[in-house]
Design a protein that fits this description.
The complex is a heterodimer of chains A (236) and B (303).
Chain A (H helix, E strand, L loop, with lengths): L2 E10 L2 E11 L4 E6 L5 H9 L6 E6 L2 E2 L5 H6 L2 E4 L11 H8 L6 H14 L1 H5 L10 H13 L5 E5 L7 H16 L3 E6 L2 H7 L2 E6 L2 E7 H6 L1 H6 L5
Parallel strand pairs in A: 3-8, 3-9, 6-7, 7-8
Antiparallel strand pairs in A: 1-2, 1-4, 4-5, 9-10
Helix pairs in contact in A: 3-6
Chain B lengths: L1 H32 L6 H17 L5 H29 L4 H23 L4 E2 L9 E4 L2 E4 H23 L1 H11 L1 H5 L5 H27 L1 E2 L5 H13 L5 H21 L8 H15 L18
Helix pairs in contact in B: 1-5, 1-6, 1-8, 1-9, 1-10, 2-3, 2-8, 2-9, 3-4, 3-8, 5-6, 5-8, 6-8, 9-10, 9-11, 10-11
Chain lengths: 236, 303
C-alpha cells in the first residue's frame, strides 16, 4: 500500500468537510476520486499533502503517518500535489516554474534529466521556456502545473481536476499524458468532476458525496453501476 | 550652474543609493509577507550606531567597524523576524495586527536608543582618507562619493543576480507570489522569509554606512525619514519588485536632491513636497507602481 487514508474526518477551521473517509492507493496505479463540486475532493488532496491535518483518523505513506509533517516535508517524501486551477507562478517564466518545482533537487544532472523527461512529455513547454507563465493559455498552464509537479519525481502524483476549463481536444491530450506518466511508474490519485473521463483511465475509483465515500470499487464496475450512471454520467 | 548641477548629481546618486538599498529591503519583506516592516528604519539606525561606537569607543579600524555594522543590522533584522514577525505568521495573525506590531517595534527601538543615548546628533566617524578629493576639471569628487558609487553598483548588481538567477532568489519570488503553492514544491517558506530579512537588513546596514558617509551625522531618529522615503520608493517601483525598488530609490532620492538643487533657496523647505508629489502623480497614473509588482495576495495567509 502506498497511500492509506483511514477513517479521516477533517475540515477547515470549524467547518467539517470530510467524514470518516477511507481510501487507498497502491503503487503505480491510477485511482479516481470523483464527485460533484463541493463534495470534498480537494479537501482530501489537501489533507494528503499536509496543507490541512486530519481531526480524526490517519493519512499514511507506506508505514509512515504523515500527520507530524509540513507540506514541504511531505513533498520530499514523494507525494506531489498539482492543485486545482493550475496555480502556476504567473510572475515567473515557464523555465523558472520548473526550476522551483525542482527546488529539492540538489544534483545538477538529476535536474537536467528531469527537465528532459518533462520536455518529452510536454514539448509545447520546451518551446515556451522563457515565456511568462501568466501569459500561457489554459491548456499550457495545466501542462506546466503537471510538469512542475513531476520535477520532484514523485511516487504519487495528486492531480486536482486537470480537465477543468479546458477544451475537449486538450483534455484528451492531457489524459494521454496522464496515462504516459502512469506507465512510467507513478501512482496517480486523480480528482475529477468529469466522472466518465476519470473512470476511463483509472483502475479503481471512489465516489465522494458531501464528504463521505458513497461508493468504491474497480472502475469498470463503477462505470456500470446504475447509481453512477444516473447521477454522474447522465445515462438514465 | 552646470558645475553646481554636476556636484548635485553626485549627491543625488549618493542619496539615491541610500534610499534604493532601503527600498529593496522593504520590497523583499513586503513581497513575501505582505508586511510593511516599519522597524526597517531602526535596523538602519542600529547599523550606524554600531559603527559609531566601535570606532569612537573601541577604536576599531573603520572598515571592520563598517562590516560589523552591516552584520549588526543583519542580526537585528533576523531577531526581529524571529521574535516579532514569525509568531504572527505562525498564528496567522490578521494583517492589521502585524502592522501594529511592526509600528510598535519601530517606536520601541527608536525610543530605547533615545533613552540610552539621548537624541543628540553625533558625528559619524569618517576616516580621514575618505575626505580626499579628486578633481575632474572643476568638479570635486570625494573619495567617499566614489566608494558609495562603486559599492552601490556592485551590491545592487549582486542582489539583482541573486534574485533572478539563484535557486533561493527564484524561490523568494515564488513565495512572494504564492506561498501556499511554493510550499507544495518543497520550499520551506519560513527559511525563505529568513533569507529575505537577512538580505534586506544587511542592505539597510550598508545604507546606514553610506548615509553616515554622506551626511556625517547619526541619531536615534535618523531612520524615520529615510525609512519612509525608502518605503515610498519601494511602492513606486512596484511592490515586491527588487530591481523596481532600486530604481524607485534613485528616482525618489536623486530626484529630491536635484529638486532642491534647482529650486531657489527660499523655497527649499518645500523639499518634502517633491517626494509626496511624485508619489501622488505616479500612483495616479500607474497605481501598481512603475514596474510589475511581485505579489498575488496581500499576505502569507492569503486574502
Amino acid at each position: 500500500m502506498l497511500l492509506s487514508i483511514k477513517n479521516v474526518t477533517t475540515g477547515y477551521e470549524k467547518a467539517q468537510v470530510l467524514k470518516d473517509i477511507t481510501l487507498d492507493v497502491e503503487a503505480k496505479e491510477i485511482v479516481a476520486l470523483v464527485g460533484a463540486n463541493g463534495a470534498g475532493k480537494t479537501t482530501t488532496l489537501q489533507c494528503i499533502s499536509g496543507v490541512i491535518k486530519p481531526w480524526v483518523g490517519s493519512v499514511s505513506l507506506g508505514e509512515r503517518d504523515l500527520a507530524p509533517f509540513a507540506p514541504y516535508q511531505i513533498v520530499a517524501m514523494g507525494i506531489s500535489y498539482c492543485p486545482e486551477g493550475r496555480d502556476v507562478f504567473a510572475n515567473l517564466s515557464v523555465y523558472e516554474n520548473l526550476r522551483i518545482g525542482a527546488y529539492l533537487i540538489r544534483d545538477a544532472k538529476e535536474f537536467r534529466d528531469r527537465l528532459d523527461r518533462v520536455y518529452s512529455l510536454f514539448p509545447r513547454l520546451q518551446q515556451r521556456l522563457n515565456q511568462l507563465s501568466g501569459s500561457l493559455s489554459g491548456g499550457e498552464q495545466q501542462m506546466l502545473a503537471i510538469a512542475r509537479a513531476l520535477m520532484t519525481n514523485p511516487d504519487l502524483l495528486l492531480l486536482d481536476e486537470p480537465s477543468l476549463g479546458l477544451a475537449p481536444i486538450l483534455v484528451e491530450s492531457i489524459y494521454n499524458t496522464i496515462q504516459e506518466i502512469n506507465a512510467a511508474g507513478k501512482a496517480i490519485l486523480l480528482v475529477e468532476q468529469n466522472v466518465g473521463l476519470a473512470l476511463e483511465v483509472s483502475s479503481r475509483g471512489y465516489v465522494l458525496e458531501k464528504g463521505e465515500i458513497r461508493l468504491s470499487g474497480p472502475s469498470p464496475e463503477l462505470q456500470d453501476s446504475d447509481y453512477v450512471k444516473a447521477s454522474y454520467l447522465g445515462i438514465a | 550652474m552646470g558645475l553646481y548641477l554636476v556636484q548635485q548629481l553626485i549627491n543625488a546618486f549618493s542619496y539615491g543609493s541610500i534610499l534604493g538599498l532601503l527600498a529593496v529591503g522593504y520590497t523583499m519583506i513586503y513581497g513575501i509577507l505582505g508586511l510593511i516592516n516599519f522597524a526597517h528604519g531602526e535596523i538602519f539606525m542600529i547599523g550606524a550606531f554600531v559603527c559609531y561606537f566601535l570606532v569612537t569607543l573601541y577604536h576599531v579600524p573603520w572598515v571592520i567597524a563598517a562590516l560589523a555594522a552591516v552584520a549588526a543590522s543583519t542580526v537585528s533584522g533576523l531577531l526581529l523576524e524571529k521574535i516579532v514577525y514569525r509568531p504572527c505568521v505562525k498564528r496567522k495573525a490578521p494583517v492589521l495586527t502585524v502592522f501594529i506590531a511592526s509600528f510598535g517595534v519601530s517606536l520601541l527601538l527608536r525610543f530605547l536608543f533615545m533613552m540610552f543615548f539621548t537624541d543628540r546628533r553625533r558625528a559619524f566617524p569618517i576616516p580621514e582618507l575618505f575626505e580626499k578629493m579628486y578633481f575632474v576639471g572643476e568638479i570635486a569628487i570625494g573619495l567617499r562619493d566614489i566608494i558609495i558609487f562603486v559599492s552601490t553598483i556592485i551590491i545592487m548588481a549582486l542582489v539583482a543576480v541573486f534574485i533572478k538567477y539563484t535557486k533561493v532568489g527564484t524561490a523568494m519570488r515564488g513565495v512572494a507570489y504564492d506561498a501556499k503553492t511554493a510550499e507544495l514544491m518543497g520550499i520551506n517558506s519560513i527559511k525563505v522569509i529568513v533569507v529575505a530579512f537577512a538580505v534586506g537588513s544587511a542592505l539597510a546596514g550598508v545604507s546606514a554606512i553610506e548615509y553616515g558617509l554622506t551626511f556625517g551625522i547619526l541619531n536615534p531618529a535618523m531612520g524615520f525619514i529615510p525609512g519612509l522615503e525608502g518605503f515610498i520608493a519601494a511602492v513606486l517601483g512596484g511592490i515586491g519588485n527588487v530591481p523596481g525598488a532600486m530604481i524607485g530609490g534613485f528616482l525618489i532620492g536623486g530626484g529630491e536632491i536635484l529638486f532642491v538643487a534647482l529650486l531657489p533657496p527660499s523655497l527649499s523647505p518645500l523639499r518634502p513636497l517633491f517626494v509626496w508629489a511624485l508619489l501622488f502623480v505616479i500612483l495616479f497614473v500607474k497605481p501598481t507602481g512603475l514596474f510589475r509588482p511581485n505579489v498575488k495576495f496581500e499576505g502569507l495567509w492569503g486574502e
